[in-house]
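cron nightly-structures :: item 1 of 1
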Amino acid sequence: VRLLGRESLGPVQLRDPGRILVFVTVLVLIRLLLRFPERSQYADLADFARRTSLGREGLLFLSVSLLGVFIAFGSHTPYYRFLVQSMGSVFRSIRVPGRGIVLFDLALGVLAAWGLSMATRGASRAARGALAAAALLLTAVEYRAFPIEVPAVERDAAPIYAWLAGVPLSGAAVEWPITDDIEPEHVFRSTAHWKPLVNGYSGFGPPHYHALTALLAQPRIPDAIWEEMRRLGGSVLLFHPTETTDENRRKYLEAVRRGILEGKLTPLASFERKGTDFPDYAFRIAGSPSFPVPVPERNAVGDPSETLRRMRNYEFRLSPPFGVVERPRENEEVAAGSWGFGWALDDSGIEQVNVSADGGPSAAAVIHRDFPGVAAIYPNHPDAAKPGFGFGVPQLPKGPHVLKVEIVGKDGGRTTLERRIVIR
C-alpha cells in the first residue's frame, strides 16, 4: 500500500493484510497449473486431475466439499474477504455464507453413495439391496436425533383475505402486527389476495422495512407511523389482534383507537376469525388514494364510534382486575362472621367485589374504602384513592374452607382470588 500510494488496483483491494496470503495462493496455483515440482510423478495440475487414484469424479466432489467448507467460513478467511471486497456485486448476494455447508453435505452424500456402490461391486443383487436398506435405516435413525417439527397450518385463509382479493385496491396493504414470527404467515397468505404488501418478508428486510418496524417496536406506537405507512404506499391496514401476545396487542389496540380518533384511520369492515374472540379489522389509511370498498352487510362496522367502543372493550379485556386479600391470611384460623379486607383495582374502575365460600352463594363486599399505599403505586388507575374493600367471613362450620373473592371491573372483566381458611 505504501509502495503504490493507493489502497486498490481496480477492483482488487490492498488494505487487508490477508491479501498477502491470497496473492501467494494465486501464485502457487498458477505455478502448479504450469508445472509440478521435478520430484512429483505428475507433470502439472491437469495431469494430476487425469491420473489421480481418486478419479475425476472423486476429485470433483472432494473439491466441491472443500468449497462448501470454504464458503461456510465466510469472512473468517482472507480469501472470502478478498472476494467480497473486490467483487462484492457477486459475493455480497450470498446472504448467509454458513449455508455453503450444503455443498459439503451434497458432495459427502455423493461420495458415500459412490463408495457404497464400489464396495458392493460384484456382490449379489440381494446383498446389494440389503446393504442399501441398512444404509437408509442408519440414515433414518440419525435423523431422529434432530427431528424437524412443523406446526399445523390452517388450510383456508382467514375471511379478511378473501374480502381483500375482491377489493380494487389502489396502493398496498399493511398488516399489523409486524413481528418476526408472524411475517412469514403474511407472505404465505398473500397468495389468497395477490395484493401488494408494504410489510411481509421471509428473510432480510430492506431499510424502509426496518424503519417501519422500529416505529412499531416502541413502547407506544408514535403518530409518525401513519405518515410512514402512507409514504410507503399503504392504502389499507389489516389488523389481526390475535396474532400477537396480550402485552403487544394492547399497544396495537391503543394505536388503532388513537388513529380513529385523530382521523388517521377509517374503519371499513370486520371479519370473525375461527377459534378466537377478536375479529380481524380493515381500515382505510387517511391520505391514501381512494378506491371502492365492497363490504358485505354482515361485515359492515357502521359508525366509527362503534369500532372505538369495541377497541376500548378489547383493551379492557386484556387488563383484568387485580388486587389482594389482606385478611384473612392463607390458612389463618378465624371466627365465622369476622371481618376480612383487601384492595382491588381495574383500568375501567371497580364495579363490585363478591365473596363466597366452598362454591356457595356470594355476597357483595363493601367497596371504595381507604387502603394506604396503593395510590402511590398505581396513581393512574380509577379508584386508586379508595381501592379498599371489606366483607364478613361467611357463617361456616368449624374446619378448613376455601374463600373466593371475585373482583368485577366496570368493563365486565373478572378476576377471582382464592384464600384457604380454617374456621375455629
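cron nightly-structures :: done
The longest strand covers residues 399-409.
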